Amino acid sequence: MSKITMHETTSRIKVENREELIELLNQQLANLSDLYSQTKFAHWNVKGANFIAVHKLFDKLAEEVEDAIDEVAERAAALGGLAKGTSRMVAEFSQLGEFPEGTTDCMSVLEVVSEAYANVGNRMREAVTQADELKDANTTDLLTQVSRMLDESLYFLESHGV
């Protein structure tokens, strides 16, 4: 990520730790924002016999990711940082691959979305460990909650037989 922009705060977390936490949170923000857009893309474009159930599932999952995006961004701001969540920032920093263009078949879309949720979930668990090492219980707790949501979402996706 790029240079950390910091704002004054009376937080008692050491500045060096806050800088690392803000960078960590912004990385997760980029990943979650990309995951959200890919989930909505899948929602809009999925086709097949199970269309309505999968279409609705993608919409529900996207809403949950959107809530997590807001929480992660606000945590970065609360630590005195700048939440880097514009589309261009997300495109630059996301660790997800591009959604394969032309993929609309229900099972193929489920597979692509499942892989994306697994990717972000694995990276989120790594972020939980890093936040814990930086001695910020609140960020650790937040990222753990997001990780749990991503794991449950992956369970719903994989339950379709992908």
Structure description:
This protein has 162 residues and is mainly alpha-helical. It has one domain: Ferritin, core subunit, four-helix bundle (Ferritin), CATH 1.20.1260. It has 5 helices and no strands. α1 (15-45) runs antiparallel to α2 (51-78), α2 packs antiparallel against α5 (137-158) and α4 (106-133) packs antiparallel against α5 (137-158). The model has no long low-confidence stretch (mean pLDDT 94). Belongs to the Dps family. InterPro entries: DPS_DNA-bd, DPS_DNA-bd_CS, Ferritin-like, Ferritin-like_SF, Ferritin_DPS_dom. Residues 22-160 form the Ferritin/DPS domain.
| Topology order in helix (H) and strand (E) letters | HHHHH
Net shape: elongated
Q: How many H/I helices?
A: 5
Helices and strands: which structural class? mainly alpha
Q: Could you state the oligomeric state of the chains shown? A: single chain
Provide a concise account of the structure shown.
72% of the residues lie in helices and 0% in strands. With 162 residues, it is mainly α. This is DNA starvation/stationary phase protection protein Dps.
